[in-house]
Specification:
The chain contains seven helices and six strands, in the order αααβββαβαβαβα. It has about 200 residues and is of the alpha/beta class. The strands form two sheets. It has a four-stranded parallel sheet. Bound molecules: zinc ion.
């Protein structure tokens, strides 16, 4: 290493690890580390304790693939949610995003990614078999494919639709179109074309 060290190995390590957090680069990691060190009692110690507890307790839900500290997860064991509606998402972050929207009180199924032959991701690498057996077990009337509007997301949606085709379930997907508050002039051609194709009655 050619750069001069400015702190002991424990602090250097803290900065290196913080730099791996999404949204933090080396510069923000240094700022965050310094802030944590300065607020040792109010922030660093409780954060370390919370992280230690998370390490011990975090697990993947055996039903839906969500992450939580209980299994089945809080979402799966919530009796107020409609068990007949299953929202399929690529990642836990999508589940959280949809929950923030609070439009439906449904159950979820987290795939853990998308089909991507170029990256070597096949059906067995995703939580697809678990989805098919959940639906095959009965009680699910609608599967909503809330995958990203990317080539991989759409490929995955088609594959799942195929896998569910023999089962008595309605498969739907999210609408593609004009975002709320969006101005047509600013939209890309793909979004505009999709919005026109999936137009609805006024
Ligand atoms: Zn769950």
């Amino acid at each position: 290493m050619s750069t001069k060290r400015i702190a002991g190995p424990e602090i250097e390590r803290l900065i290196q690890l913080l730099a791996k957090v999404p949204g933090l680069g080396p510069r923000s990691a240094r700022r965050a580390a310094l802030h944590l060190i300065k607020k040792k009692e109010q922030l660093l110690a409780p954060l370390a304790a919370a992280m230690g507890e998370a390490v011990d307790k975090v697990r993947v839900c055996s039903v839906c693939g969500n992450v939580d500290t209980v299994d089945p997860c809080t979402v799966c064991s919530d009796p107020r949610r409609d068990p007949a509606t299953l929202i399929v998402v690529e990642d836990v972050s999508d589940l959280w995003a949809l929950e923030r929207a609070a439009a439906l009180s449904a159950r979820y199924h987290v795939l853990g990614g998308t089909l991507s032959p170029l990256d070597g991701v096949g059906p067995d690498d995703l939580n697809i078999k678990g989805l098919v057996s959940r639906v095959a077990a009965g009680g699910v009337r609608e599967v909503i494919l809330a995958v990203n509007a990317t080539v991989e997301g759409q490929t995955t949606a088609h594959y799942i639709t195929d896998q569910l085709s023999g089962l008595d379930v309605r498969v739907t997907r999210l609408a593609h179109g004009v975002p709320v508050g969006g101005e047509l002039d600013y939209l890309d051609e793909g979004t505009l074309a999709a919005a026109l194709k999936s137009r609805t009655a006024f």
